[in-house]
UniProtKB/TrEMBL annotation:
The chain crosses the membrane at residues 20-40, 55-76, 97-122, 134-162, 169-186, 217-240. Residues 21-243 form the ABC transmembrane type-2 domain. Belongs to the ABC-2 integral membrane protein family. It comes from Microbacterium murale. It is found in: Cell membrane. The keyword Membrane applies. This is Transport permease protein. It is a multi-pass membrane protein.
Length: 251
């Protein structure tokens, strides 16, 4: 655990060491994206069938965890090759090289929550906050599990099959639009509502939003997300243990 915290802290220090904006980079990207989508769907086009009001809060509630997911999976593809010498020479569990990415990117996500809070306070008269807000930390735990499982799958496979790094980048681009970020699960028409429910991010993003938008609750999507997250987590651990030796030989 101590090694995990040291490596995660090192990642954050390296990321912000030469940056003037520092912490602001944790929120600048999702804020700019939110601003663009807010402008397009509220000022340019008449948005009357997707999301909820205030739309900017609706967007940020999914964009912030999406950035955590996207940056983590992107870094998984280089998790071992980036520090190949340390991976080979140290005796610490190799899974730490995946977990430290989840932790460091997760901390950046937590650092961005105060910005989300400001938008919520600014739009307090349009939002109803209830006990459903307790699902927010549940969403964080589920996303951690999902990312650890995916990291255990992606990191070793990208060492053995180099083309997977570029393939993962393409998949992430498509997954953004296949995930309920700029829209909600409830906005999907049949049969896409059923297909979309099998995206584990759909249920997780729903849990992030339901504390502020109770109508977003979708039982089937959330249950499927929980089952898929646990399945990916278990599969990832099994694949990682099976491929650990081949990966070390390849490095």
């Amino acid at each position: 655990m101590h090694s995990l915290w040291l490596l995660s802290a090192r990642d954050l220090k390296v990321r912000y060491a030469t940056s003037w904006l520092g912490y602001l980079w944790s929120v600048l990207d999702p804020l700019i994206m939110s601003g663009i989508y807010w402008f397009v769907f509220t000022q340019v086009f008449h948005r009357d069938k997707i999301g909820e009001q205030p739309y900017i809060v609706f967007l940020i509630l999914a964009l912030l965890p999406w950035v955590w997911f996207n940056t983590s999976v992107s870094d998984f593809t280089r998790a071992f090759r980036k520090d190949a010498r340390l991976v080979r020479s140290t005796s610490i569990p190799r899974s730490i090289w995946v977990n430290r990415i989840v932790l460091s990117k997760g901390l950046e996500f937590l650092f961005s929550i105060p910005v989300l809070a400001l938008f919520i306070i600014f739009n307090a008269d349009k939002i109803t906050v209830g006990w459903s807000l307790l699902w927010f930390p549940v969403a964080i735990v589920l996303q951690c599990m999902l990312l650890v499982g995916l990291g255990m799958l992606v990191a070793p496979l990208c060492v053995l099959y180099a083309d997977l790094e570029r393939t993962t980048a393409l998949i992430l681009r498509a997954l953004f639009y296949a995930s309920p970020v700029i829209y909600s699960v409830n906005d999907l028409p049949a049969p896409f509502d059923v297909v979309g429910a099998f995206n584990p991010l759909a249920g997780i993003f729903t849990l992030y939003r339901v504390g502020f938008f109770p109508d977003q609750w979708h039982t089937m999507t959330i249950l499927i997300s929980v089952v898929m997250t646990i399945g990916i987590f278990v599969l990832g651990i099994w694949v990682f243990r099976s491929l650990e030796r081949p990966v070390l030989k390849e490095l």
